[in-house]
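Service request form, structural biology core

Requester: graduate student, group of Dr. S.
Request type: structure prediction, single chain
Budget code: on file
Notes: please return the result as structure tokens.

Sequence provided:
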Amino acid sequence: MLTLGFAGVEAAAGFWSGSLALLGDAGHMVTDSASLGLAAFAAWLSQRPPTQRHTYGYGRVETLAALFNVLFMVVVVVGISVAAVGRILEPAAVNGEAVTLVAALGLLLNIAVAWLLMGGEQTLNTRGALLHVLGDLLGSVAALVSGAVVMWTGWTTVDPLLSMLICALMLASSLRLLREVLQALMEGVPRSLSTEQIGRVLAGVAGVASVHDLHIWTLSSKRVALSAHLIVESLEQWPGVLAASRHTLADLGITHVTLQPEPLTQPVRWLSPADRIGQQSPR
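Core staff response, request fulfilled:
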């Protein structure tokens, strides 16, 4: 509510002073309000227990919220960039004093909101919301510098130039987060984990002859799932192998584990852990 309220103040000041930087920052803050509300709703919904229709729960909602926020930010960046180009081609008068004062107040508000978000749990959802807030923070800095330059030099072109610079920085951040969100939605292996490394770890558990059909994917920002087929030297060893495998994977932050044992039916020579990864049948 604070962010949305101050967006109205910035928009009014931007129209009155003729500052595109302030208007752009006000637009950012409007999207921030929506992104913060969406992030809060997604965080609440993700805590709901699993149902018969959604057996994994609603944790993936946070990833969808992050995707929406990233795409929303890209649209805002494009819109402000187009307006900035128009302002460069047709310069307009800017009230530097008003821009500087309002931008300074906005900067303080954005620092407070960013500090609150950075102090919480860093999920894709909160990072998506934080991306908007940091965009506003940089926008406030740009507007503050723009107002000071206009006030002291009268060079109004600095206003759209700084707006475009901030847009470029935010677009780069948005695309990085978008890549992570799409990786999660495509059920890819989290960037912090290595399929090869985890395969080696499982293949090194006592009693495991080889590993195949290894899959790792993201359920939510806080849950990583794994499934694999383990060929064991003896099914009688399976309880111990299962316990050791789960304990090893838990140390890597993987707690949602499904492991299927398969008996070793043929003589097997010693294989290095790298040889065992992805093996479809025992040798």
